[in-house]
Task: structure prediction
Amino acid sequence: MRSRKKKWADPFISVHPDLFPSPQGLDLNKPSYLEIGCGKGDFLLGMASKQKGDYLAIEKDHSIAAVAGKKALNAGLNNVRLFASDFDELAPIFLESGYRFAKIYVNFPDPWPKLRHHKRRLTETSRLTMMAKLLDEGGEIRFKTDNADLFEYSKEQAPLANLHIVYSDDDYALKEDDALTEYESQFRQYGIPIHYLILNKEEK
Result:
């Protein structure tokens, strides 16, 4: 669903370079985490407030990214940085800059249900391969969706990207080391099952 463009979003982003920095040359503390498609930031803020480390978050919709940024600012969190951009653009920059992540979170991405659009899915093989390159040794990709077809597709794509399925759950109950997204809160309220995957790099 497209958001309504907020006129204040781009000015807000431009006057908060500490919160919305350049993707190059960041000084990341360990452990560090990446969320791809953070939406309005509920999961991001929930995790950043309970788990030590630096959190980078990508959200290509500038208006939504600005909402997440405003929430982080109001919460006084200094371990969060956001990028109003696209994963395909940022991933090569992160890789070249040497950023590596203990966990990469992909929460409720667009399922792109039509077959001709499957190449746009975040869990398509080439994107999973790039995520794997951005993992620290022993790092994990954690994926949540309400879409059963996307879930099965993602399980099929994982081994093609040399990723091992550590954990798979068709009706996932929230754990202590996790946080709710805005969508997830609604899904759980209506009894919609959450599908959950944990992936890591296969040992050579």
User: Anything to note?
Assistant: The chain has a mean pLDDT of 95.
